[in-house]
Write the structure tokens for this entry.
Amino acid sequence: MYAVIKTGGKQYRVAKDDIIEVEMLDEPKDGSVTLDHVLMVCDGATVKIGAPTVSGAKVSAKVLDQKKGEKIIVFKKKRRQNYRRKNGHRQNLTVLKITDIKG
């Protein structure tokens, strides 16, 4: 059984016991979170597709960690104008372990 969920503006295909990294959620470490934006649920034979979400479907997950992602370098340049800007960015992430899918 798997589901397609939406969180942080991105979509993820998840199954039970999967570990995923999503954009930061306001949950403490070792807490639990319920994701309500379920776009699709498949349990082998039947597929439920929402318009836009599947009603009554929920995905439960446990928060394993709050961390920062890899550094991304942002560099802007305009040629022949002596214009250069260098900036770095590290996105805050939440590591989730999927515990249950209810569809």
Observations:
- The first strand starts at residue 2 and ends at 7.
- The mean pLDDT is 95.
- The chain has no helices and ten strands.
- Residues 2 and 42 are 5 Å apart (CA to CA).
